[in-house]
Every structure is written in structure tokens, then in C-alpha cells.
Specification:
Blueprint: H1 16-39, E1 41-45, E2 51-56, E3 61-66, H2 76-102, H3 112-117, H4 122-136
GO molecular function: DNA binding
Pfam family, one: YbaB_DNA_bd
Protein name: Conserved DNA-binding protein YbaB
């Protein structure tokens, strides 16, 4: 053994107790979040109040309720449009409520609704994750300039 080194002194060793406490705190937070999601639901009405759509906490369709007989006067296409629009509205409301439940986006500087729906640009997602890490190191990031495709791009890089 090296003289003066005490393996039980804690010097130079990671704070295992602190890490375990943080892990347990995050685990309890996730368990509560799962419980809240399992109890959650989102209900929206169509613009004309003909339909009510309910989604469960996972965003899965739980119920479609027909509130009036207006559908009898509609063409199949019109009915499908009302249903589609109402389902999209329900999905959007569901994503908003999940964002509130989670306390925002898990990725800094990225809107939760865009993140959860897949509308976020992958480069922006990556930038949102890396920027805080890089800032901790005292550096900055720059977005690379992307070449614009030629009008009739054949897939080959002609600029090499």
C-alpha cells in the first residue's frame, strides 16, 4: 500500500452515496410520472360538437362519442374530415398536457410538442443536448453550413 493513502477516506473517490440518493430521487420522480400518465386522459370536441374524442395517458384512442345526428347529413368524406381533424386536435392537446406533466421538454431549447411528435429537426435536438455540455467546458458550437442540393441532383458530390 502507498504510504499516506487511506482507501476509506473518500479523497479522490466518487460520491457514491450522493449518486445513489440522486438515482433514488429520479427513480421516484419517474414512478410518479408513470402513475400520472396512466391516470391521465385527453378529451376534445369537434368544432361542430358532433364528436367527442378521448385519448388515454399514452395518447391511444379510448373512445369516440357521437353527440348529435349531424353525421347523417354528411358525405363520407365530410365525416372523415371531421373525425380526422378532431383526432389531430386531441393528439395536439395530449402532447401539450404531457409536456406540462413532465415539466417541459427533456431536451433543452426544444419544444416538447415538436420533440414528442417527431417534428423537431435532428440537428436541433442534438444541438439542444450538446450545447449545455459544451458550455460547461467553456466552448461554443456552430451549426455547419449545409450545401444546397442542385436543382437536378444526381446524388454525386461534384465539388470534390
Amino acid at each position: 500500500m502507498t504510504a499516506g493513502f487511506n482507501p476509506f477516506s473518500g479523497q479522490g473517490l466518487p460520491d457514491v452515496a450522493g449518486a445513489l440518493a440522486e438515482f433514488e430521487k429520479q427513480q421516484a420522480r419517474l414512478i410518479k410520472l408513470q402513475e400520472d400518465i396512466s391516470k391521465a386522459s385527453t378529451t376534445v370536441d369537434s368544432d361542430n360538437k358532433m364528436l367527442t374524442v378521448t385519448l388515454d395517458g399514452n395518447g391511444q384512442l379510448r373512445e369516440i362519442k357521437v353527440n348529435t345526428t349531424q353525421y347523417r347529413k354528411m358525405t363520407p368524406k365530410e365525416l372523415a374530415e371531421v373525425l380526422t381533424k378532431t383526432l389531430r386536435k386531441a393528439n395536439s392537446e395530449h402532447l401539450k398536457s404531457m409536456g406540462e406533466l413532465m415539466g417541459g421538454s427533456p431536451v433543452p431549447n426544444v419544444d416538447f410538442e415538436d420533440f414528442a411528435s417527431g417534428r423537431s429537426d435532428f440537428g436541433e435536438l442534438l444541438q439542444g443536448i450538446l450545447d449545455p455540455i459544451i458550455a460547461d467546458q467553456g466552448a461554443t458550437t456552430q451549426k455547419p453550413e449545409l450545401k444546397k442540393p442542385r436543382p437536378q441532383d444526381d446524388g454525386w458530390d461534384h465539388d470534390r
